[in-house]
Design a protein that fits this description.
With 297 residues, the chain is of the alpha/beta class. It is built from 12 helices and 8 strands. The protein has helices at 10-21, 28-35, 40-52, 58-64, 70-81, 106-120, 140-156, 173-176, 185-190, 219-222, 225-235, 273-285; strands at residues 3-5, 131-137, 161-165, 200-201, 207-210, 241-246, 261-267, 289-296. The protein has an 8-stranded mixed β-sheet, with helices on both faces.
């Protein structure tokens, strides 16, 4: 599965990561120096440029001066973030969630680019979007896998991440993360009460899930997005990022009332442009920001 993002400011996204993790961890300049990506005179020149600039970050300044490139800054930031990688063959996560095992895989890199897009975006009030829905147009399986990898990428960056599978009819995430699906979104919508017990930690540090829950006969009637988001907001208070896997919905089940932002995944030469436009209008009409589209070839 190859992805192309129609909107992405990776450099800005990594800048946001540098702001978030610039204190209490090794400085980016020291890591680049240790990597051999910069020498001491270049580090000094970057620091001098920073002193004269209006808040330019070290990685940005080093790239602007031509001393290094985005990929090296990316690797330095990953090292700074000290994210967890599971050993090959670890059965606690499905191999399709490649970001949990291999940071160099193209899908892992794309997931980090999407994470950068999210961290670079802002809501109307200037705050970061917390709840992000991923929706597929004729790309259900690919979108579900992408949601899982993005969840891992966010957790690896230090964001306390809650991934929610809203695909009650065809749940996926519990299989990808080897979790129970005895209760989940369908249970939240069916039963009132305290739903905190439905949050399950995954084998990836910092990533928790609410699975889709058991199948129910009246899914369409049961699914109330406003009620769901009210309950999810309460459950996500201890998290930095709330990712909603709506890969099966194509916008028909979930109206996105309550989601801060959305990403739309489409299949090249397969997804209907009209369907994508209708979905985009549906999402925008609820006040949800569309961060961009992801083309899967």
């Amino acid at each position: 599965m190859r992805l192309r993002s129609s909107e992405s400011d990776v450099a800005t996204g990594f800048a946001a990561a540098e702001i978030r993790y610039g204190t209490g961890r090794p400085k980016i300049g020291a890591i680049l120096l240790e990597m051999g990506a910069l020498n001491e005179s270049q580090v000094a020149a970057v620091l001098a440029r920073q002193a004269q600039s209006n808040g330019e970050l070290f990685g940005q300044a080093a790239i602007s001066l031509g001393f290094t490139n985005l990929e090296r800054v990316r690797r330095a930031l990953e090292q700074q973030q000290r994210f967890q990688v599971l050993p090959a063959g670890d059965g606690s996560v499905d191999p399709l969630v490649v970001a949990a095992f291999n940071p160099s895989d193209p899908l892992s890199r794309e997931a980090r680019s999407l994470r950068a897009m999210i961290s670079a975006s802002r809501r109307a009030d200037g705050s970061l979007p917390k709840s992000i829905a991923l929706v597929g147009v004729d790309a259900a399986a690919e979108t579900a896998i992408l949601s899982a990898n993005l969840g891992v990428a966010c957790a690896q960056a230090g964001y306390r991440t809650l991934l929610v599978d809203t695909n009650i009819d065809q749940p996926v995430q519990h299989n990808l993360f080897r979790l129970s699906n005895r209760s989940g979104v369908s249970s939240m919508l069916s039963v009132d009460g305290d739903h905190r017990g439905m949050i399950q930690p995954s084998a990836v540090r910092g990533l928790s899930l609410i699975t889709a829950g058991p199948a129910v006969p009246n899914t369409t009637e049961l699914f109330d997005s406003k009620r769901l988001f009210v309950r999810l907001r309460l459950l996500s208070e201890g998290f930095d990022v709330l990712l909603i896997d709506a890969s099966q919905s194509n916008g028909s089940m979930i109206s996105f009332d309550g989601a801060d932002a959305a990403l739309i995944a489409v299949r090249q030469d397969r997804s209907s442009l009209d369907d994508m436009k209708k979905l985009a209008c549906s999402i925008s009409s609820s006040g949800t920001i569309i961060l961009g589209s992801i083309i899967i070839d």
